[in-house]
Amino acid sequence: MSRPPVVPVEDKQRIVLSVLAGEMTLAEAARRNKVSEQSVSRWKSQFLEAGRAGLAEGGKSGPSSREQQLQAEVDELTTALGEAHVQLRVWKKSAEGQLGPSRTLR
């Protein structure tokens, strides 16, 4: 069994809007675009659900889960960088004290 073709988002949107506008039936859209009726139906459901969620939030959408994940990673890396910077400064100060002239010798 072969893998179904990957349909670009723009094409999915055009297909779903055509079905919603009544320009073609779900079966016609599937046949013309060489995809299954189930795929077109799923795209339509996803499209409507996303629109419903957008309206429920007043049109303001927060960061996506991917954006939240990336922000958490940035925060973690920023903290690690800060810790490494402090550690480097301590090592430099320590090295200066060991390599510099002794304070007991005058």
Automatic annotation (TrEMBL):
<protein>
    <recommendedName>
        <fullName>Insertion element IS150 protein InsJ-like helix-turn-helix domain-containing protein</fullName>
    </recommendedName>
</protein>
<dbReference type="InterPro" id="IPR010921">
    <property type="entry name" value="Trp_repressor/repl_initiator"/>
</dbReference>
<dbReference type="Pfam" id="PF13518">
    <property type="entry name" value="HTH_28"/>
</dbReference>
<dbReference type="InterPro" id="IPR055247">
    <property type="entry name" value="InsJ-like_HTH"/>
</dbReference>
<dbReference type="InterPro" id="IPR036388">
    <property type="entry name" value="WH-like_DNA-bd_sf"/>
</dbReference>
<feature type="domain" description="Insertion element IS150 protein InsJ-like helix-turn-helix">
    <location>
        <begin position="12"/>
        <end position="56"/>
    </location>
</feature>
